[in-house]
Design goal:
With 417 residues, the protein is mainly β. The chain contains 3 helices and 21 strands. It is globular, with a radius of gyration of 21 Å.
Length: 417
């Protein structure tokens, strides 16, 4: 990943930095913040990571220090008035280059009411609330250190730069065990989403993209062919290309805090023939359905599952045209200071276009086992084993086997503040 050019995210970043700085010391604003510093050591991987323009699905490889601050992040909330608040999430990551930036920054209006029917508005850059796997500070997971392929991809290429309106019904105030909410978002600046699906596929990791950041592709031979000569060797996922608005709609259901269901339809409404020649970014027509479910077996044990299915295409006459699908199932059990979690998942990208020089088909199967231990209020340690078996057709053009089996141990120490 690298910083490249200007896009919608750069203005959000500037806005958040200025507004946070101007209000942090104001007697009229209340500032709260929390975050983590994460140190990881891991089993060395001889294959170069996709982050370093390699073909491995793992985040860490031999090009990064064996003991490293793998991520440091903080969430800041500034209460500006009774109903207005500013929220931002900032992170540092070392790979592939030391980078510091925002992953979210938005203004929220949430008027207080005694009614069972509530509403709120968000304006800025933020994640649609599709994930039940990533509820913690900095959109992190309390279960495993690596995210599922679904949420790893959402962290790479999906962000709302616009507004969301939420309407909710609070069941408790109606003597009902059911809570409902409806979410509608309108956005720009997410046109290239789908690029990583075509030219890498889905992979399990925990590397989130920041505003105004670019992700370089591995050396896919097709990117040097004439039909793709205007495509840059990277994706700047939070870029506006075609001037169109995208949208999403979502419904949340919560039953007595024991079961949760979230269903979302996302459509960036991209014009696949549109291209920004100065940045080398096409608009991709990307749309998908996401269904996430959480069930608490008891106070200590929960099951989380998610399914995502969609389609993405780009180029004149949709020269790149792919379907994609992924699912995972996770079980997690907490006993006092100990938490153990296991996740299985499977992902596909199916190539439907006629560009034989640019095969996009891929498949990834992954198994993740994780153990976490809370040493005290601030310190936590843990270990994770991640196994990914992938089949990527485009590897053949690089003289590599299409099939690859990878596993990696990771040891983590975290400080929470």
């Amino acid at each position: 990943m690298n910083r490249h050019g200007k896009n919608v995210g750069s203005y959000i970043t500037l806005f958040a930095a200025l507004l946070t700085g101007s209000t942090a010391f104001s007697s009229y604003a209340s500032v709260t913040w929390q975050g983590k510093i994460q140190v990881s050591t891991f089993e060395r991987n001889e294959w170069k990571s996709w982050l370093n323009r390699g073909w491995s699905n793992n985040r860490f490889d031999a090009q990064i220090d064996s003991v490293v601050i793998s991520r440091a992040w903080a969430d800041v909330r500034v209460d500006l008035a009774q109903a207005w608040s500013l929220h931002s999430s900032m992170q540092y990551v070392p790979d592939p280059d030391d980078s510091l930036g925002f992953t979210e920054a938005y203004l929220k209006y949430n008027p207080l009411s005694n009614s069972p029917y509530q509403w709120q508005v968000k304006l800025g850059g933020f994640y649609p609330a599709m994930s039940l796997e990533n509820p913690s500070v900095g959109w992190s997971s309390p279960y495993t250190y690596s995210f599922s392929g679904i949420n790893a991809w959402l962290g790479e290429e999906i962000r709302t730069f616009g507004t969301e309106i939420e309407w909710s019904r609070l069941g408790k105030r109606l003597r009902s065990p059911h809570d409902f909410s409806v979410h509608v978002g309108l956005f720009k600046g997410n046109d290239p989403a789908g690029s990583m699906l075509a030219w890498r596929g889905l992979a399990s990791h925990d590397r989130q993209s920041m505003f105004n950041e670019s992700i370089y592709f591995n050396p896919v031979k097709a990117l040097y062919e004439r039909p793709l000569r205007f495509q840059a060797p990277f994706v700047a996922p939070f870029t506006e290309v075609d001037g169109r608005f995208g949208y999403y709609t979502g419904v949340h259901w919560d039953y007595q805090k024991r079961q949760q269901l979230r269903v979302y339809w996302y459509d960036n409404h991209g014009d696949p023939s549109a291209i920004n020649f100065s940045t080398g970014q096409y608009a991709w027509d990307t749309r998908f359905l996401s269904v996430a479910w959480l069930y608490k077996l008891d106070k200590q044990t929960r099951i989380i599952a998610q399914w995502l299915d969609g389609k993405t295409s780009m180029g004149p006459r949709r020269g790149v045209d792919n379907n994609f699908s992924s699912w995972y199932a996770l079980i997690s059990h907490q006993m006092d200071a100990h938490r153990i979690s296991a996740r299985i998942e499977r992902s596909w990208v199916v190539d439907h276009d006629d560009w034989a020089f640019d095969p996009n088909a891929s498949e990834n199967k992954a198994l993740t086992l994780a153990y976490r231990f809370n040493l005290n209020e601030h310190w936590q340690t843990g270990i994770e084993w991640l196994r990914q078996d992938s089949h990527v057709v485009s590897r053949a053009a690089a003289g590599l086997a299409m099939d690859r089996e990878e596993s990696q141990w990771r040891y983590v120490l975290e400080y929470q503040f």
